[in-house]
Amino acid sequence: MLRQVLVAGGIAIATALTGGEAAWAQDTVKIGLVQSMTGPLAAVGRQVVSAAKLYMQQHGDTVAGKKIQLILRDDTTVPDVAKRLAQELIVNEKVHILGVGITPVAMAIAPLATEAKIPEVVMVSGTSVVTERSPYIVRTSFTLGQQCAIMGDWAAKNGHKKVVIIQSDWAPGHEATATFTKAFTAGGGQILETLKVPLANPDFAPFLQRAKDLNPDTLFVFVPAGGQAGTFAKQFVERGLDKAGIKLIGPGDVTDDDDMPTMSDAMLGVVTAGFYSASHNSPKNKEYVAAFKKAYGFRPNFISLGGYDGMHLIYEALKKTGGNTNGDALLAAMKGMKWESPRGPIQIDPETRDIIQNIYIRRVERVDGELYNQEFATFEAVKDPGKIKN
After folding, report:
1. Cβ distance 181 to 191 under 8 Å?
2. Mind listing the pLDDT tens digit for each residue in 230-251?
């Protein structure tokens, strides 16, 4: 038995020592995308994968002399499925980089990225702690803390006094609530009650009625992108909260660009804090939105930028390493990287491997016959508040 252990250990060590050189010598760089293409958050996967493919269409499929290959796997919005698929991609497909999606999936895959020593680019998850689950995780999406801390501070300074919170009952919802509450109450605001809605098949109506009965001046809402915002908006109107004069605020998810075309004028005036709007006024964004709509026939939302910028990060890291796909080399190249995104200037924090980006306060307005989030205030280079050292 001891001899078998020593032999196995020797094989593992030899593999570890030669793995990086073998990977560098290969002509193809394999990127495994594990995303939610079916299930309750399928719209999220659709956005991020569409954007990743668009980036490749625009920038080619060759970087530093290496062919880029995307290998897509549908995690069906189930973490255990995602973990199995990621393991198959690492062991059987020999992928060099993973591009992952929602929070439970990113967390489930994290130990595999650590063991394989390959970068895990988080393209969707907005939960702060995700980057701490593996030293090989780099985030190109956002954190809810970035948006909700800004929203809480802004709301307290702009006439919002008594708030009821409605949140989806999962990790991102808890984080959104906690960050908003801390900032809002620090500014003198009062939280009347926090209502938690089941993530799967939510019916917001009873929670909206409870919120209305509490007579707040404002409702702070977090629901995940991917269709729920549209359902929430419909039931918000049906329960008469708009006519009761209750203001609606939240992070960018509640007025998601993916859902906005189906929302009613009751959403006009809704204020949110977000890092991207399809109406962001920059040449790069106008080009991005036009190309995205032409390719897919629908509007890009904030989730799409995680995929688009995730591919940019990978491409530029490969250029820096000269095509070397060693995980540590790629990770070193990614840390501290800065560039101009369709969302505005962004960078990867070299210490936390998290994204630093602008947060915009936006108001829903009708532009050329459609509802859009129109930015009217900018907070520059916002870090995740959960990782700022006091």
Report:
1. yes
2. 888 889 888 888 889 999 999 9
